[in-house]
């Protein structure tokens, strides 16, 4: 029996962080045996953001960085297919054709685009490509006919658009596309170390999966907690406190977490102890990732080969999909 497919991936705009991990990477690892998995390194997509238009070298380096992160967390390159978006011109062709099926108003009616315009200070200078990028993302997903798309909550509007486009195409021209489902992680959206609603590179509130021990310690010790608490003997607030949100997300010792929360609320524990315990938990998560990443950093040709091989394999699949599309719309 053939396996169902997963399509998921990352913008190669820097190293991956804990937000990526809880939102999408954890599900990738869990499902890599059950599904045939394609991981897109969305390099052409990155140019949707003004910041990267003038800095192609960041994206070029990012391709290696995010692939190394994905390998370091335990995705097995003999099972999972990694590919570079720019290596698949069929995605551009498909994206162009799909854009004809989406009204301009519908493209603009997207809460995540609106949020990114704000978070990334784009004002009204965002490009036509930025507005179009969820449609290009639909092309990424549909070109391999994925069934499941593991993503953080912010990506769900794009998956919804993908489903609409697939439905519209199928009902207009005949069945070609699977209508994919989004799958969010247990933590749908991880807060930043500064307490902002989203951990994101653009706000500089991240903890990277490749963090050194010293840097991890520094970032945790300067984390935002309860601003109204001055002394360790003051009763503190646990709800919405990023340090406790991280304990809930990463500390599997529930007893310890409940004990810390109880003492925090009654002013019987200082930030230092709560943060020290968080450091131990996160360092345990990151240490093996760090070690595995060091191997790939020393063997970057191997990483490039994994991408080249995966891109060729994916391209053969997308060519089949595109041929079916062109036949249906009588362009072949
Ligand atoms: P950054 O904002 O830090 O540049 P990004 O959002 O651009 O990151 P993407 O490549 O767009 O990163 O995201 C890759 C995956 O990680 C997506 O599925 C996205 O939803 C998820 N993700 C990113 N940040 C978070 C977060 N803070 N919490 C949960 N999921 C997240
Ligand atoms: Mg994003």
Automatic annotation (TrEMBL):
The Gene Ontology biological process terms listed for this entry are: tryptophanyl-tRNA aminoacylation
What keywords are annotated for this sequence in UniProt? Aminoacyl-tRNA synthetase, ATP-binding, Ligase, Nucleotide-binding, Protein biosynthesis
Q: What is its EC number?
A: 6.1.1.2
Does the keyword Nucleotide-binding feature in the UniProt annotation? yes
* Class of the enzyme per the UniProt entry, highest EC level: ligase
Which species does this protein come from? candidate division WWE3 bacterium RIFOXYA2_FULL_46_9
Q: Which domain of life is it from?
A: Bacteria
Q: Which reaction does it catalyse?
A: tRNA(Trp) + L-tryptophan + ATP = L-tryptophyl-tRNA(Trp) + AMP + diphosphate + H(+)
Nucleotide-binding among keywords:
yes
Which GO cellular component terms, listed alphabetically, does the Swiss-Prot or TrEMBL entry include?
cytosol
Task: Specify the protein name.
Answer: Tryptophan--tRNA ligase
User: What family classification does the UniProt entry report for this protein?
Assistant: Belongs to the class-I aminoacyl-tRNA synthetase family.
Show the InterPro entries listed in the entry: aa-tRNA-synth_I_CS, aa-tRNA-synth_Ic, Rossmann-like_a/b/a_fold, Trp-tRNA-ligase, Trp-tRNA_synthetase
Against Pfam families, the record matches this protein to:
tRNA-synt_1b
